[in-house]
Sequence to fold (122 residues):
Amino acid sequence: MPLLLLAGRLLLGGAFLVAGLRNLGNIPFLTGVIAGRGMPLPRAALLAGIVMQTVAGALLIAGFWTDIALVGLVAFLFAATLLFHNFWDHQGIDRVNRINGVISNAALTGGIFIILAAGSGG
Fold:
């Protein structure tokens, strides 16, 4: 079971860590998306989100403060879903892609809830 837990932490935490690092290369574009949604201080909000997802992902991988990291990731997913997956404003394939983002983020949140409920966080 410890190997399975480590693999899960690597996969889940790694996904957030890699996504956060990838987002560092897209700051101008992502800031524009957030600004278009009416978020005040869009660059600061984006940087806070990047820090949240990378730090929480790294903590999860390392096995430190994992419950706090998992709760942080749920908060990140909630905000990211509202800001980036506004399917109700889109049509066609763009709408489908955004709905898929909502479904993916809901599934990640559900998985995190299962981990927290099972007490395997740490």
